[in-house]
Each structure stands twice: as C-alpha cells, then as structure tokens.
Amino acid sequence: MFVFQFTRVWIPDPDDVWRAAEITKDYKEGEPVLHLQLEDGTPLEYQVGPKSNTLPFLRNPDILVGENDLTALSYLHEPAVLHNLRVRFLESNHIYTYCGIVLVAINPYEQLQIYGEEVITAYSGQNMGDMDPHIFAVAEEAYKQMARYTCRNQSIIVSGESGAGKTVSAKYAMRFFATVGGSSRDANVEEKVLASNPIMEAIGNAKTTRNDNSSRFGKYIQIAFSRHYHIIGASMRTYLLEKSRVVFQVSPASPRLENGPGPR
C-alpha cells in the first residue's frame, strides 16, 4: 500500500465527526504515522496500524461535491455522503438528494415553499431524473408505474429516525396523488387520512429524549385508485405497536409531560 503526498482524505473528529485533511508526505505500508495537514494549516501526525486507526477515507474531487445523486461520487462512504448532503443543504438549500432510486431527505425544521400546486404540476409527467430530487418525483414515479403496469400495486417506504419527518413526507406524497389523481371531492384525501393521527397518537405515542411526540407504531397507508387512476378511497393500518411502552395515558397535569419521558 502506497499513498502519495497531496492526497486528500477524511479523518475522524470528536467535534465535527469528520475533518478534511491532506497528506503532506508519501506513506508506505507498515509505517505507524501518516503526516497530514488540516484545512486550517495545522499539521497532524495521524497514527495508523493494526492496533490504532485504519487508513483514512479518500475525499472526492471538488467538481463532484454537491451532486444531486450520491451514486455519481467517486468515493461513496460515510464522510463523503455527509459532506455532500451538508454542501447541498447549507450552500444551495437543497434538502433532497438521490442515492440511486432512494431519496435522502434532510429535515430543515421549517416550512419551505417547495410543495405548492405549481411544483406538483412541474413534476407531473416527468421522469425521476429529469428534475431536481424531490418527494414529488418519487410519487410521480410510483404513479407512472401504476398506470404503466395496470393493476400492479406500488409502494413507497418512508423510513428514518424519530423526528426525521416521516409523517410530513407521507403527507406531501399523498398531496401529490390527490392533485394528479383526484377530483374536487378527493382533493383533501391526505387531510382525511391524517385526521385519524391524533386519535392514534393519543394511544400509541410517547415522549422520548429526541422527539416529544414519537410514534411507537408504524403506519401503512393504502390509497385506492380506479381504473382511470382517480382516487376512490384510502385506509390506514398500524403495525409493530410497542405495547410495553404504552401502559396508560399521562394526566395533563402530570409533571412528567415537562420533565421526563412519557408512558413506558
């Protein structure tokens, strides 16, 4: 193994998770130290070996940073993915990025004006890679596949950590279907389906350290379409209820609502 001088790498950091660095001296396999320089000019001797750190991850060329599809990167690993998402979010305010057919979303914790009817119209009829990554592009792809392969069900899996925005993402997908596949009486299908959320949340949610209103169950939402691809109904089923965490409903006057976790 031989690593040349000026090679750009990522090294672990306790504060920033990953820090960018550059190798300042050629490295040969078996040497215990890798000579680096951080972006601020600070020199660093990075210990490597079987009992310490492995060789650091390589950085992507600057021309690839900010790509809207992670599979276009030369090196696809944790620091490369996190850096690309960070650049897209902080520099371009893009919360969506593709990774092949998967859509990666960053929760901005604020309302963005990218879900209006004009945006739905723009994505309707487009191929998934023709426009910037968006939840509407995923919904359009599912809708198009359903119309192309008659009577073949389509599924969109919305997954993420507590508080990541799964419920809101599902709502936007249903808004797209209600607009492109609904009529005036069906246009509020997502409101009708999500109106049942407060009832289920009162039974199956609990406060955690990361989310004040964390779902303790999954939701499987089914939207039914006619042969003309118009919405004719919707239903919701729950699964994987963590009964051990939902024992009783906390009294509104209970101090646990403010100072501690909810039902356990």
From TrEMBL:
ATP binds at G160, E161, S162, G163, A164, G165, K166, T167. One of its GO terms (molecular function) is ATP binding. Residues 65-264 form the Myosin motor domain. The keyword Repeat does not apply. SMART domains: MYSc. Keywords: Actin-binding, ATP-binding, Motor protein, Myosin, Nucleotide-binding. GO terms for cellular component: cytoplasm; membrane; myosin complex. The keyword Nucleotide-binding applies. One of its GO terms (biological process) is actin filament organization. SUPFAM superfamilies: P-loop containing nucleoside triphosphate hydrolases. Belongs to the TRAFAC class myosin-kinesin ATPase superfamily. Myosin family. This is Myosin motor domain-containing protein. It comes from Nothobranchius furzeri (Turquoise killifish). The lineage of its organism: Eukaryota, Metazoa, Chordata, Craniata, Vertebrata.
